[in-house]
Amino acid sequence: MDLSRRLKPQFQLRNDSQSGLGKPLFLTWNASEQTRAPKCLGAKKPGKTMPKTATLGHAITDVDQSAFLGALALIRQAIQQPDSIMTSSYSRSILKVLYLAGILYGATTAQDDLPQTIVGCDYLDCPFGDGTPRYQWANCTLADKDYTAVGFSRIPLSSKTLWPGLSWLYGAEQDSSVSPTFEKNFYLGAPPETDFSDVTACAIFFRNVSGAVGFQGSSRTSQGTCEDAMSKDCVAALNKQAAAVDVDGLSAKDACSKVKDELLETMDPDCYSWARDRDWNNITAIPLSGPDAPKPISREENSTSNCWPVSPKNYSLTKVESYVVDRTGEDDDESPNSVVPILTVFFPGDSDTLLEPESQMNCIKTVVNPDMEFDDENGSGALKNMPMVLALWTSMLATLLAILP
Fold first, then answer.
1. Domain boundaries in the chain?
2. What is the sign, positive or negative, of the torsion defined by CA atoms of 218, 221, 224, 227?
3. Strand partners, 145
4. What is the pLDDT of residues 123-143, one digit of tens each?
């Protein structure tokens, strides 16, 4: 089966009231005429047309991530109940390819889908105030907190872990720059039903960093990796030190406390420049596993929200840490735009879910970036540029489906 051939007229994907996805979603190609990509499918320009020679790749690149993820459920239904949605065996083959490719897409690109290391409200579809350009202050209410800017970044876990797409979200009110005190809130973004019960997981927050920790450029728009913010050598030293802590036999809470204590007790010389007075001094350790771990935001807690600043949108958000900055004291040089380093550490448990400890570091801050404004021609979201790996695997799967009985 050649994926570059024209799609036949009878290929349709429709959503009915039983799908439970909450919004209509349908996908249609008609070889006899140009087909308009419906707005609910994710076309960024209302009425945008797809020519009759549209290929599978063209179709997918015009679908935003939330619509694509929702379509996977419908595709599975179509394969299992072909009479309810499809009218030909050819359609069924195409749907198989889409479904399998979608699974591979989610597994292989969840950590690579952001256009830059840290993204803000422009990318995450936060609501903005009336008459306010998209790149300026947002009006994001998440549970009981109001944010005018956020920063969102993937945790750079290795491919061996079972939790692709884990992310950190930081929310702040930018107008707090005129107040001597303001609050910083941090959330873990995770795939639905993420389970850390077989491992020990910790989040370590560093507050006593020096003014040298940061990115080049404007404090509002700059972003990058921790290696950019506080050197590759210091990041490597912190990850190595955290992963080497012996936590055998300890509860998650005690294990995370031990990681914090050892980081406070011994500082690697490569990190001297990045801590005030060569002392981390103020580190917070939060268990992400075990009975003391925070719980994801519930539907009830989020009932008054107008914003869900995570990608993909079906991911959960868990408030992990919150603290107040008082700039009349030791925090006099800290702002809502300051960089906060976070270590995310995993230790193996009794099962083989994780074979060895892993520690990774994020340097999170809010990002307000005018260059991230969505446009009609290029689209937006994680599927703005189709990853080469998806196209390759889709072609291979199509070939397998064509030759196998």
1. 12-110+381-403, 121-370
2. positive
3. 142
4. 998 887 654 554 467 889 999
